[in-house]
């Protein structure tokens, strides 16, 4: 095919390398800042089947780094929108869409369908979950990570040593060690670079061309344009923390937000409320608390009632809890997540009194 002629004339790659790509099945976990460039380059290179896992929707604040998307896509699901955009560009490829977040109930089934996994997620819980499934299923894993001006690239479960994420980080960090990405910030070009490097490693693994970046971590510093590598060694202590069976994996709590309630900002909370099916925004303050709010898009369910009868929320898949400051909603979200592990339950950051809240009486008449 003329589309791939510049690849197939490369020494060692040729038609055989292209055929390997076309027959491959690659899963990209997270269609965000890392996932978008990885998806674009994997599709452009001709990877035959690409799976996309993401339960999130597109927000305006995503657009500086999630370069597949534009303003017209705000409020739409990331996974299906990414597939639609790529399918229009490359109609010969197959895309499999999973508009959900990975968890212990679905990860084994989804990941088992693919040859190689790309992790573009931004939280520790999901990284450990994906890593552990890939070890159980013997799937190569290409992982990227971003922190401020630095990016990391790691290849796991590949080669003779078959190193994994727990060789580097045996356990998730403590709650007070976890940076908030909304607070630390990111320049969109950095995940673009790391996501592209992830795609390049995938292509090398699938085609058998070149030396794969295994048994080391590649660091890139955006501020001074420097790369450096750090060797990884097996960590027996870390490996003891791996699940020893699929049943063991399913029984674990990966605490996707590391033991605390998952939070969502007001911009995204409103996007979900208006655009995601089976979503509900719930005011959990007790009856009579001021300001008294009556909005068509807001359900009033005092936290006392929800603790006594959590089944009031059983009809909803996406549950967004709000209180005055965000503290009570965070606590209740944590409690409800124990009862409804399959649901997406969030606490709205800062609550009604947050400056960005449309319910803040200091900004709007409520």
From TrEMBL:
Keywords: ATP-binding, Nucleotide-binding, Nucleotidyltransferase, Transferase. The lineage of its organism: Bacteria, Pseudomonadati, Bacteroidota, Flavobacteriia, Flavobacteriales. Its EC number is 2.7.7.80. InterPro entries: Rhodanese-like_dom_sf (IPR036873), ThiF/MoeB/HesA (IPR045886), ThiF_NAD_FAD-bd (IPR000594), Ubiquitin-activating_enz (IPR035985). It comes from Salegentibacter salegens. CDD domains: RHOD, ThiF_MoeB_HesA_family. Pfam families: ThiF. PANTHER family: ADENYLYLTRANSFERASE AND SULFURTRANSFERASE MOCS3, UBIQUITIN-ACTIVATING ENZYME E1. This is Molybdopterin-synthase adenylyltransferase. The keyword Transferase applies. One of its GO terms (molecular function) is ATP binding. SUPFAM superfamilies: Activating enzymes of the ubiquitin-like proteins (SSF69572), Rhodanese/Cell cycle control phosphatase (SSF52821). Residues 4-233 form the THIF-type NAD/FAD binding fold domain. The keyword Cell inner membrane does not apply. Belongs to the HesA/MoeB/ThiF family.
